[in-house]
């Protein structure tokens, strides 16, 4: 049975709706407690939810830069269409397991209405690579932020902490090497080679390669071309994606301020609070991505927030509050993404 684009669109839509229902009934607190947390957040919910307007805008601009570099011509897709696909794509990613793979097929399907399927596929793959590449840079830079705070006496340094930071550095450097190979040589053939080694998938991989070998070669050439020929688009996209992580950290900062945690106030205090927020987001996203096969990362994100906030010497109760409000924000943006999916471009 061959699915039409409309049928696939409906499937993605129902996946997102199901995700909202599941998330609503999987909170670790009762609805009474949830309501109390929401009341505690009060008007701070507006900037906490609203900051993601800018996060998604930076994501869409990063994707736009990749498409411009990939097409090497007049931009065939408007920013607002990319913005809508960005929000919906991430909403679907929240709904699916294995690191959030639901949004990418949807983006390819929708983008292929504007450009040929090979360029749509390579652009979406390149953006997904850039999204993860920026994650590793965010984690890597966060280590040096922590070390800077150690030097000013704001953070502790023990043998255990030093060992963990060293492991993260090695982890990031290893993946920087893998990403550089992927950008220079293309990624699809490499991934198919890895899949072919999985028991039971070798025959399927060979059949897939036989049917789509020319398209795969072209997609890999387009992936390699962006890195080799349009470094400006590449680094612009990387900067925008990295910036989106920094802006995302404001969400946690708002919640720390809500609890009266401002490191003494003033410009210096707010700067320290913001740097603490970056470290919290960095640790939580690292923890969540390491166990990203869980649908909607249920329990993983919550545990990451509690652990990262406790590591900074703050209360576990604050970690639970942050995780719950972030889960509410996710539900709201999934609902927005599903609504945008049914809007005409």
What does this 3D model show about the protein?
The protein is mainly α and 345 residues long. The protein has 13 helices and no strands. It has helices at 5-24, 31-41, 45-71, 79-95, 103-111, 117-151, 159-185, 188-196, 202-229, 231-258, 266-290, 300-311, 316-341. Helix 12 (300-311) packs antiparallel against helix 13 (316-341). 34% of the residues are buried.
How would the blueprint of this fold be written?
Elements: H1 5-24, H2 31-41, H3 45-71, H4 79-95, H5 103-111, H6 117-151, H7 159-185, H8 188-196, H9 202-229, H10 231-258, H11 266-290, H12 300-311, H13 316-341
Helix pairs in contact: 1-4, 1-13, 3-4, 3-6, 3-10, 4-5, 4-13, 5-6, 6-7, 6-9, 6-10, 6-11, 7-9, 8-9, 10-11, 11-12, 12-13
**End-to-end distance, in Å?**
28 Å
Average predicted local confidence, pLDDT: 79
Question: Could you state the order of secondary-structure elements as H and E?
Answer: HHHHHHHHHHHHH
Uncertain residue segments? 293-297
Based on Cα principal axes, name the global outline. globular
Number of helices: 13
Q: Helicity, in percent?
A: over 70%
Largest sheet: none
% residues in beta strands: under 5%
Classification by helices and strands: mainly alpha
Number of strands: 0
Rg, Cα atoms, Å: 21 Å
List keywords for this structure.
345 residues, mainly alpha, globular
């Amino acid at each position: 049975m061959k699915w039409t684009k409309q049928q696939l669109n409906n499937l993605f839509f129902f996946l997102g709706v199901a995700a909202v229902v599941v998330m609503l009934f999987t909170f670790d607190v009762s609805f009474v407690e949830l309501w109390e947390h929401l009341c505690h957040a009060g008007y701070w919910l507006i900037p906490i939810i609203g900051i993601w307007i800018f996060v998604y805008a930076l994501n869409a601009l990063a994707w736009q830069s990749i498409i411009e570099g990939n097409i090497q011509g007049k931009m065939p897709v408007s920013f607002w269409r990319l913005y809508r696909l960005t929000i919906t794509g991430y909403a679907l990613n929240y709904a699916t397991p294995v690191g959030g793979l639901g949004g990418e097929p949807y983006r390819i399907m929708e983008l292929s209405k504007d450009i040929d399927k090979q360029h749509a596929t390579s652009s979406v793959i390149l953006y997904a690579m850039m999204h993860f590449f920026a994650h590793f840079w965010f984690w890597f830079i966060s280590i040096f932020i922590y070390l800077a705070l150690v030097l000013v006496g704001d953070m502790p340094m023990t043998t255990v902490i030093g060992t963990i930071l060293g492991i993260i550095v090695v982890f990031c450097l290893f993946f920087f090497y893998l990403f550089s190979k992927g950008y220079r040589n293309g990624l699809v053939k490499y991934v198919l080679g890895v899949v072919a080694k999985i028991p039971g998938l070798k025959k399927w991989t060979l059949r897939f390669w036989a049917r789509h070998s020319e398209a795969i070669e072209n997609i890999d050439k387009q992936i390699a071309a962006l890195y080799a020929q349009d470094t400006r688009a590449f680094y612009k996209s990387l900067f925008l994606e990295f910036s989106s992580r920094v802006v995302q950290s404001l969400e946690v900062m708002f919640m720390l301020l809500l609890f009266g945690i401002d490191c003494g106030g003033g410009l210096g205090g707010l700067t320290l609070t913001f740097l603490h927020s970056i470290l919290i987001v960095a640790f939580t996203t690292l923890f969540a991505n390491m166990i990203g096969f869980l649908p909607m990362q249920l329990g993983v994100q919550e545990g990451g927030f509690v652990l990262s906030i406790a590591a900074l010497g703050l209360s576990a109760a604050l970690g639970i509050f942050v995780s719950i409000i972030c889960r509410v924000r996710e539900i709201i943006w999934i609902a927005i993404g599903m609504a945008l999916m049914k809007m005409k471009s």
